[in-house]
Amino acid sequence: MLMNHSKVMQFFSVVGEVTGRKKLQKMIYILQSCGVPFEEKYQFHFYGPYSEELSLRIEELCNLGFIEEEKEDKSNYIQYHYQITEHGVDFLEHFQSDMPDFSEQANLLLAESSRFLELVATMLFFKDLPREVVEKKVHHVKPKQNYSPVEMAKAWELIDTLVQ
Amino acid sequence: MAYKDEQLHEEKVFKDPVHRYVHVRDRVIWDLIATPEFQRLRRIKQLGTTYLTFHGAEHSRFNHSLGVYEIVRRIIFNFKDRKHWNEQDRLLCLCAALLHDLGHGPFSHSFEKVFKLDHEHYTQQIIVGDTKVNHVLEKVYPGFANEVADVIAKTHSNKLVVSLISSQIDADRMDYLQRDSYFTGVSYGHFDMERILRVMRPTEDQVVIKSTGMHAVEDYIMSRYQMYWQVYFHPVTRSSEVILTKIFHRVKHLYDKGYIFKLEPTHFISFFKNEENLQDYLKLDEAIVYYYFQMWQEETDEVLQDLCERFINRRLFKYVEFDPNKMMNVWLELIQLFKNIRIDPDYYLVVDSSSDLPYDFYRPGEEGERLPIHLLMPNQELRELSRESDVVEAISGKKRTDHKLYFPLDMLKENKDKETVEKIMAILQIQGDV
Questions:
Q1: Using CA of residue A31, residue A35, residue A36, residue A37, what is the dihedral sign?
Q2: Domain map of chain A by residue range?
Q3: Do A45 and B154 touch (CB under 8 A)?
């Protein structure tokens, strides 16, 4: 029952609280790209890889009371905070899906900004291309983000650590 | 004259029930429509199994693709001479609009789920691979096929062009809402598209809506909301999708176990083995899949035989509302009860959730999540739609999720172990018919 929901719940049980929908989207995408078997389908959007399926699944988990969503009005946009509830913990006890231990990678990602995770996720989206082409592609699709060579190098370093 | 500029000496038109006429003047578009890869879309229904609920919904991906092309053609016509619009991008937009769904396969949602495929990947493969479509595109100029593929994948650097084909108010959605409404025969799904096209404005990186057109967009958002609940998320359609998915699961399971089929499933073998290539994919269409479903009714495997018979003859599963909170403690018991009466719960007890659907609502989102619809205010400022529209804000805040449990009530009723069946019915809270 709801095995894909259970996988997302395991993510929350590992990371505790996540601030920002963008951060949440990118974290799951990066983990998925590194082999953690989340099933949500991603497409490239204006801000990089994005999964409507994940957005809806989170909405479902909130409506079921397994995850708590808090809204914070930031004048021209709303920021969301997510964390697992007691009900969610109970659900996970009943329906634990078979997932590898991804806590180390998840916590590494949690410490990063959503801007940086957007860069890492975008690089991973083009992972089948040679590295120099990936960097060109990132500048091409995200000219406004203006990522520096230092950020690019840090992103490659993180990717190497994650896939080890 | 360069191939990209070549015009047919006489405009060709396709009669269309939604847009009245689809106009073609560019040689490139005419040649793309004639390719076998594009013609294949005639044999793939736009709404998959929805015809089992709304009998008129037999329209194809071919109809829809022409419709999206026509809408983009009209938008571009309105953009001519506007700031930020470059007429050089015209052919790129038209080709991307026409080809955006090229990689859809038969019953693609269920098929992709079981075989872990992605129609978007195949759209890319058909456009950049060794295909007739690719040969036409590369005649425009070398590298043009890659550009079209990038626009469809949303990885092209020209975000304005991308947003015409794919955004929260794009030609794709505007066509399918109206077309699906027309063919299903429902009375929702209508909105004033002509008005929306007139108030669309190109900006540097997206299409925005002039604020005076807000009410037309509200109507579009409302149509999207109603179509979601009344058509796309119809519980009977979901039942047929559940059965379809289980057929694919079962046939793959049997193949993996070494079951000897009476009719070798030649068209599926590379998919069972995860060795499929573009040629295998292009050979599949819905006629082929129906042929196998007919033949699999003759197989000795009772589950496969039964599921195919159900699908072909529309003997669908029944459903009850499913609340995971309430069912959490009895779920394992329910599975065991099904096993006790020899009904395999892996195939006959299925939870289906709203997140399993490939359709979505309007999402205002937070900054950096997904590009919302922006209104262009008289002072040239951009404002997110739900911040200006009470109607959209109200819809955006609604609970939009749902879970249902599907099962074969007929099998339960026919089962001789009445005591166990009664226990199952009590857990599912079934009294009489569902």
A1: positive
A2: 3-163
A3: yes
CB pairs under 8 A between A and B: 97
Residues in Cβ contact with B250 at an 8 Å cutoff, skipping those fewer than 6 apart = B301, B303, B304, B307, B347
Structural domains for chain B: 3-202+211-233 (1.10.3210.10), 235-356+402-427 (1.20.1250.30)
Sheet of B350-353: strands edge to edge?
B318-321, B403-407, B350-353
Contact criterion met (CB < 8 Å) for A44 and B154? yes
Taking CA atoms, B2 is separated from B11, B47, B136, B137, in Å, by 18, 39, 13, 13
Read off the pLDDT of each residue in A16-42 and give the average, rounded to a whole number.
Answer: 94
B151–chain A nearest CA distance, Å: 11
Pairwise CB contact (< 8 Å): A46 & B354:
no
Residues of A in contact with B393 (CB under 8 A): none
Of B159, B206, B353, the CB nearest to A60: B353
Average pLDDT over all residues of chain B: 93
B279-329 pLDDT, tens digit per residue, is: 999 999 999 999 999 999 999 999 999 999 999 999 999 999 998 888 888
What ranges make up the beta strands (E) of chain A?
A: 18-19, 43-45, 48-50, 67-73, 78-84
- Provide the 8-state DSSP code for B352: E
The pLDDT of residue B431 is above 70: no
Nearest to A56 among B206, B355, B367 (CB): B355
Contact B246, B62 (CB under 8 A): no
For the CA atoms of B102, B107, B109, B113, what is the dihedral angle to 10 degrees? -110
Nearest C-alpha neighbor of B51 from the set B348, B409, B314: B314
Cβ–Cβ gap A44/B363 under 8 Å: no
CA–chain centroid gap for A77, Å, is 20
Does B331 lie at the interface with A, CB-CB under 8 angstroms? yes
The minimum CA-CA distance between A116 and chain B, rounded to whole Å, is 12
Cβ contacts of B403 on chain A, cutoff 8 Å: 2, 60
- Which residues are A50's β-sheet partners? A43
Alpha helices in B228-285 (DSSP H): 235-257, 269-272, 278-283
Q: Residue A151 burial by CB count (10 A; 0-12/13-18/19+): exposed, middle or buried?
A: middle
pLDDT of residue B432: 57
Query: B327 contacts in A (CB within 8 Å)?
Result: 1
- CA-CA distance, B279 to B41, in Å (whole number)? 15
| pLDDT of B397 | 66
Q: How near does any CA of chain A get to the CA of B371, in Å?
A: 6
Give the residue from chain A lying closest to B163, CA to CA: A46
Digit-coded pLDDT (tens) for A126-137: 998 999 999 999
Of B353, B369, B401, nearest to A21 by CB-CB distance is B369
Q: Among candidates B186, B152, B175, B182, which has minimal Cα distance to B58?
A: B182
Contacts of B384 in chain A (CB under 8 A): 77
The most confident of A72-76, B56-60, B168-172, B367-371, by mean pLDDT? B56-60
The answer to whether residue B153 neighbours chain A at the CB level (below 8 Å) is yes
- CB-neighbour burial class of residue B1 (10 A; exposed 0-12, middle 13-18, buried 19+): exposed
